[in-house]
Specification:
The structure is a homodimer.
Chain A lengths: L10 H12 L3 E5 L7 E5 L9 E8 L16 E7 L5 H11 L5 E6 L2 H16 L5 E6 L19 H14 L4 H14 E7 L19 E4 L10 E4 L3 H13 L14 E9 L5 H16 L3 E9 L9 E8 L2 H8 L2 E2 L4 E2 L2
Parallel strand pairs in A: 3-4, 3-5, 5-6, 10-11
Antiparallel strand pairs in A: 1-2, 2-4, 7-8, 7-12, 8-9, 10-12, 13-14
Helix pairs in contact in A: 2-3, 4-5, 4-8, 6-7
């Protein structure tokens, strides 16, 4: 293991301290005020009447989630240890810290630990703290049904689209149920698929979670290295993009043109899993762009870079989110977070 | 070699096509109009009277330089093949394409091939095309004097600070000499140092350019894997940050407090070399922040992420740029490029 760290035990805490040092608009709350763990919040108090968005999950996927805290997106994020769910006390403390009285939306990726812990936090928030809570479950990964830590589909790249679009709506003063419903609509409109070239190594480990031969790739890998659909021989960028898009476009929500429900406009993301150079992500995006234009899908916005990662895994994920005018206008709204920023 | 690509020969062209597909405000010009190679420019014509900034260099350092083309920063970038200087014809074509009559500033990293080719392009621009040209040479890397491809110090992370600050000044209508002088001032105020944990592999190669044992790091590495000051045993994040800052703060321009010339305010960047997770970069930034506050250096702005990379090298570079009020205000000015965006 070759990593920049002090000790494996302080990996997450040191990284969060660095995030806060680099971004004065964010604060890291730790200790007793954070349910025994820590969370990241906007330094400014939530505006009265604004619905708060709180997300979280295991660390190791940076910038997700703490890098999406800020104006126009999340109010707080609860990072667990690496690849480990945060705990209910942490989530409850975050909800209490950022609730303005208008309620809290929990954005939860579909992993069993996250789902159970956010559910318990929601019950505590409602029953003990009197906070109204809605939960949006993200399950966009079409690669497999049921996986190492998931019943149903896994949650991955669509998370940031849910957080951006629902976050913009919350910023405008929409009510709790409306914000949550928009989050669910974004999730229902988005599908993802990932391909890994290597495994990844956690800070506490000396070797990768899985090994791939030099000429193979994992097709449909999960963000913790969970198995995908199959191992396959390493293919060209064009073939990789094609197999990912074939899987995604098989979903009815993304079927357009003659066979479907009319023109399909999407936000397209090609996301690096950690160790893949940006130049390769653009090579993949070029293929995505070419393939989609041949299938009647119009890319109206795009993201290319590292947004939902798996530590030092080499690989890429593909996410398409079908948008209507309202979703697109919310996507374009100003945002100021460490990882997504425009208009501010 | 495991990479997402079609063929090694089409690596740069495919990646640039993807960049243009993802960012409609940019255009890739190829073929005869690009001096036989290609360059990336803003899609919009240069505003009359605005000085144009053109940079370039070998590919493999993405987002540098093409990812910094856009309002508030570069007008055009000339990418060479991977780790290979662009050619004079390319630079001349870019200058001709974006010159509005107010002249062009070439921002050139100090590598011998780049320096010679930009010098030839400047001569051609002035003598054959009647374009006024000023050149800003970037040589911020304090690790070594003279290296594999460099006489003097290498150019690295300060490049984006030169491009951002001089770019903002050009956007406001400053004259050619004034913009260039600001670029030189930023370069003179900035110092960098890098540490590698692994080598990197070019698309045409089957193995890394250099190999490091599992317990060693290259201290002072160059962005093409050029040797640094020494090999050392892998150290903690705190020790790595300390040795980098020791090298940088030994420079008179960054000496402050009692021994120096007054309070020192800096833009601090912790930059990933390609394969290092963002969480580790924040761990390093946390140490940078702590160490600098103990030495009387005030971090007024920061950047943490992958900005000047070396393909899939694991490692990080550190850049400090001392700023005055004018430079800071220009840093904060709106910018809209693929890799740096705020206020727009």
């Amino acid at each position: 293991m070759k990593k920049f760290l002090n000790t494996p035990d302080s990996y997450v805490a040191d990284s969060l301290a660095g995030l806060a040092a680099a971004h004065p608009l964010l604060t890291v709350v730790t200790g007793a005020d954070a349910g025994g763990a820590g969370f990241v919040r906007r330094a400014a108090a939530t505006r009265a009447g604004k619905v708060a968005l709180v997300s979280g999950g295991g660390s190791g996927h940076e910038p997700l989630h703490a890098g999406f805290v800020g104006v126009g997106m999340l109010d707080a994020a609860c990072p667990g240890e690496v690849f480990t769910s945060p705990v209910p006390g942490q989530m409850l403390a975050a909800a209490q810290a950022v609730d303005s009285g208008a309620g809290v939306v929990f954005v939860v990726k579909n992993y069993t630990g996250d789902v159970l812990n956010f559910q318990m936090a929601a019950e505590l928030a409602v029953e003990d703290a009197g906070i109204a809570v809605e939960t949006v479950l993200v399950d966009d990964d079409v690669a497999v049904q049921d996986s190492t830590w998931t019943a149903g589909r896994r949650g991955t790249g669509a998370t940031l689209m849910v957080e951006k679009i629902a976050g913009a709506l919350a910023e405008r003063g929409a009510e709790l149920g409306v914000v949550a419903e928009m989050g669910r609509r974004v999730n229902a409109s988005a599908r993802s698929f990932a391909v890994a070239l290597t495994g990844c190594t956690t800070p506490a480990s000396s070797k990768p979670g899985f090994l791939l031969p030099d000429d193979e790739m994992e097709v449909g890998v999960g963000i913790h290295g969970e198995p995908g659909r199959r191992r396959a021989k390493l293919a060209s960028a064009r073939e990789v993009a094609e197999l990912a898009l074939d899987a995604i476009l098989a979903e009815p929500v993304l079927a357009g043109g003659a066979a479907g429900t009319g023109p399909v406009e999407v936000i397209a993301m090609v996301n690096g899993l950690g160790a893949t150079p940006l130049s390769e992500l653009y090579i993949l995006f070029n293929e995505v762009s070419r393939l989609l234009s041949g299938r009647g899908v119009s890319v109206v916005r795009s993201l290319v870079g590292n947004y939902v990662t798996s530590l030092d895994m080499a690989g890429a994920s593909f996410t398409l989110c079908r948008v209507d005018d309202e979703m697109l206008e919310l996507w374009d709204a100003p945002v100021n977070t460490p990882a997504l920023r425009w208009g501010l």
